[in-house]
Structure formats: structure tokens, C-alpha cells
Amino acid sequence: MPLSLFPFFALVTILTFLEIGISASYCQNLSNETLGKASCPLNFDILKKLVNKDPESSTFANISTQCQTILEGLDLVRSEYLRTNEYFVPPPTTSKACWDSYQLLIGEFINGFDIETSCGYNIAEWISKPCMNIKSRAQFESLIPSTELYQLRYYCTQSLDDSFTCELCTRKLLQLGKNYFDGIGSTAGNISACSGYPSMYAAAFINNFGPTDKATAKCLFSIELKPKKSSSSHHRSAIAGATAGSLVGLLGAFSAILVLLMRRHRKNIKERSRRVMEKNDSVKDETSLVFGFGLYSRSTGLKKFKIKEIKSATMNFSRENIIGMGGYGNVYKGVLPDGSEVAIKRFKNCSLVGDANFVHEVEVIASVKHVNLVELRGFCTATIPLEGHQRIIVCDLMHNGSLYDHLFGSEKKRLSWPIRLKIALGTARGLAYLHHGLHPAIIHRDIKASNILLDETFEPKVADFGLAKIKSEGTTHLSTRVAGTLGYVAPEYALYGKLTEKSDVYSFGVVLLELLSGKKAYDNDEGKIFRVTDWAWELVEQGRALDVLEQDMAEIGLAEVMEQYVLVAVLCSHPILDVRPTMDQTVKILESGLPVRSSS
């Protein structure tokens, strides 16, 4: 026998003698069946870090809930195992080791507490016993329809650190459990092995913060710490309260003095302004308000019109030339000496506030150049006796009016779906440029159908930057006075004044819903309030996304494609800020037709 073959035959002889067989199924499951029986793959340290060891503060010390909490704590640990290994349960060979580890951990919190004796749970069996033989993430996702998983993402992606968002998520998880896991599957003792699957999956793969986040642990697994205050802490609180009260009193007095001084200062400014106006007996062009921002250095093509040129172009601001009206003033159609048609926006607020709004809009529009943003051709500033301040902006005329005119105007024209998609995509690109193409970013604050103008080819142009805000570098949001249009304003901005780029995303989502449905963002018919966002989401939740689409829309796309656009609109107009995609992500989804689930 050749010497090289001797080790091979020796190995065969040994294996035969020990009667060890390696089956094909064992090889397939080798990744989930570790050979080390004494080692538990579950990481119980994450639970230890979340839970305070003080028995007075730990939820484990609550006799009425401790058994349930112990189970939910185990679900949390298994959720982290699922996140890192994509399996719901560890290998059966490790059950005893995991049981011993968990019992040891519980003993650190509650002395002498035996889980099996006190609660009746056979944890050693339950730790590795799968629900309905579902062991992996892939098996779970094959059981749940993609629409259900999308809705789960809609509710549970964001931080769950407040009761409202937590309730939305847990309610959806309970519904999912009832539909797919209730009353079926295997049980261990008196505990269903299926009960924790939806929460474990959501914490592992849906929620952006994961199962080890304190808010997620509290909401999905009821792991919460609330240490009791000692008498000394109460004493310190009382002292702090008294000190704070004194400071509030001092601040109140100081504020009153400051208000009086500011009122006197404003009165002096108004008086000086009045004297200047009295000295003006002829038209005086004003430039300092605008030039102080250095516009000419940034926009060399910007023209400063004379007031007589503007009056000539608009037939002395004839009512017949009005093509738009709003809280800011009127928009006139004008014709310049070279024959070009322009839109002339005349502010009607001639106070100092009006001056500031004018300067702000000129600065913003002149600084941005994009095919889907209205381009400024020029401006006019003048002070006229009897007529007061004149603040005027000159832009190219959009011959197809606004999106509002086509969707809801008196001469409503039904737009085909390809035209609507072109408008949606162009608007999204314009906003993406404001948010991601400029530094610092610009937040428009008033995206709505009437502020989306259409040229002769129906290319959209985002207009009216009068409410726009420039976001400072390094800031996450702006806290500012709420402005905008009812039905388009994001909830976090309307309620708390928290303004971010996602506020514009919300407004865009509303506009996209208007394009898809032909319904207004907001309507109040004799006290019956309609919000297109609430209406659309209710249909999506019922699995009727296609019912959002306007009936008899021309050249409509395939059903599965149109459903994706509805889901994009609903996602952008989600009431919770963190769930909305960015405008960059929205553009990519609209351009590529990617499934909405991949945008989170």
C-alpha cells in the first residue's frame, strides 16, 4: 500500500469505529448549529446594560409583571441575535447554556428567583423552539406580504421615544400578530413561541435604532427604568425650585424694562422714517436695501428696472394685466420694450416688514440657478409720494400658468399621467437642488400647487421664495414662526415650529398626492374637513392604493407602477419627520422606479 494512502484509510477506520455520520441536512444547517454545546450565542450583556441593578428601580422587581418582563427581556436579546445572525432562535444544542446564562442574570436582579418554578416557563426548551418552524429572517419575510412589511416600515422606522409613535408601531405589530400568528404554531409550556416574532423582527430590521436602543427596548419589549427619587433628591429639587423661582422673577423684571426700551427705539425709527418721507417730493430709486447683500457680485445678469419701465410694461398696473393674487400682493403680465413677456410681482405690504420680505426673496432667487426654479430677470425699488414704497420682482412669464390652474382652476384641463409625472419629477429635482446642491441649504417653506409654475412644455418651475429660509451650516433644524399654506405644512413645523428640509418633503408629498388624485390638499365643506393625506393613507392601509388615482386619467401607467407612486407620495407626507425620505432619495425613486421599501 502506498504510504500516502495510509492516513486516508486510517481516518475511515476511526470514523466507522465511532459510528459518526455526517448527514446532508446537518451540513446545510451548520451555520446555525454551532458545535460548541457549552457556549450560548445570545448576548445577555446588552440586557444588563439597559437595566439598572437597583432592585427599587428595576421593572424586574415588580411582582405582578416580573414574569412577563423576563420573557420580553429574552425577546429583546433574541432580537439582537436576529439582527446580527438573521436567525430567531439559537441552535438547540445551546439551549441549556443559554438557560443557565439567563437564570444567572436574573439572579443578579432578584435574589433567589427561579424562573421555571416562579413563572412556570420551560425557558430551556422555549429559547430554541421556533414558531411555526420559522427560524430565519427569510422564512419570516416569505410569510408576510410585502404590503404588510411596507406598512410596518411606515409605522416603526422612526424613534419610538414618545407615546404617540410607540402606540402607532405597537398597534400595527399587534394587528400583524393577530393576522398571521394568532392561535397557531407551537407552544412551550403556556407561552406561545410566536408571540414575540413581530416585535423581534421590527426591532431588528425595521426600526432605525435597533433593539438595544432604550426607546425601542421600552416600547417594543417594555424594558424601562425609572429610579425612585431619594429624600435628598427631593430636598435638592425643592432648593432648585426656589432658586429657579427667584431667577424667573428677576428675568421678568429685566424683560419688562427691555420691552419698554425696544418700544421707544422703534418709535424713534418710525419718526425718522416719517421725516424722510416728508422730504421726498419726487420719485426716488432705492438701492441700498438690495445692494447691501452683494447681489450684483453674485448675479451679473440681474437688471434694476426703473419704475416708469414697470408702469409702461403693465399699462400702469392695469387690473386687466393681473394674472395672480396673494397675501403678498399681485402678479401682473408685462411686456418689455424688446417684446419679451414677463411676470411682474408687486408687493402690496409697504411697511418695513414688506421691505425685508422683498430683500429676502431677491437675495434667494438671484443666488440660485436651476432649470426647475424660477429665474429672476430683475427688480425695482422706488419710493413714490402718495403711493409709498414700491418693491417689485421681474421674472420670465410662464405661459401655462400654475399647477393649481390645471388641477383646480375654473378652466380646469385634465393633465395626462406623463405630464403629471414630468411635473412631479421636475419639482422634486428643484427641491433637491435647494436642499443638497446649495451650501448652505435653502428651505422653501411654501411648496404648493399654486407655487409650481409651468412653461410652454409643462416643465415645472418652483416659484415664490418669499418665505424661504437659509439653513446655517451644522444645524439640524430651524426654530421659527410657522408660515405656509393650510394642508401643506408639516405637522412638526405646525405644532412645534421645527423647520427642516423634511418640511419641504412633506409639502412635496402633498403636491404629489394632488397630482395623483386630482383632489385638493385641504377642503372645508360646511365644517366637513377633508385632508388628502389622511384620505390617501386610509386607502393605502386598506390595501386600496390604486383607489387614490383620479378616475379616467389619460395615459395611466401599469397598476404596480402607479401603486409605487402612491406609496412614494404617502411616504413623503408621513406625519413623522424621520420616516420621510430626503428629496435626493425621492428623485432617485421617481427616476428609477425602485420599490418604496428600499428608500428607508
Question: Please, could you describe this protein's structure?
Answer:
Mean pLDDT is 75; it is low at 1-37, 53-64, 185-192, 226-240 and 272-300. The protein has 3 domains: 31-221, no CATH class; 285-396, Phosphorylase Kinase, domain 1 (2-Layer Sandwich); 403-599, Transferase(Phosphotransferase) domain 1 (Transferase(Phosphotransferase), domain 1, Orthogonal Bundle). Helix 9 packs antiparallel against helix 10. Strands 3, 4, 5, 6, 7, 8 and 9 form a 7-stranded mixed beta sheet that branches. A two-stranded antiparallel ribbon has the order 1-2. It is of the alpha+beta class and 600 residues long. The protein has 24 helices and 17 strands.
What topology emerges from the helices and strands here?
Layout: H1 6-18, H2 24-28, H3 45-50, H4 66-85, H5 95-109, H6 115-119, H7 123-126, H8 137-143, H9 146-156, H10 163-180, E1 187-188, E2 191-192, H11 197-206, H12 214-221, H13 231-279, E3 284-285, H14 288-291, H15 295-298, E4 303-304, H16 307-313, E5 322-326, E6 329-335, E7 341-347, H17 352-367, E8 376-384, E9 388-396, H18 403-408, H19 417-437, E10 442-443, E11 452-454, E12 460-462, E13 469-470, E14 478-479, H20 491-496, E15 498-499, H21 501-517, E16 522-525, E17 528-531, H22 532-541, H23 559-572, H24 583-592
Parallel strand pairs: 4-8
Antiparallel strand pairs: 1-2, 3-8, 5-6, 6-7, 7-9, 8-9, 10-13, 11-12, 14-15, 16-17
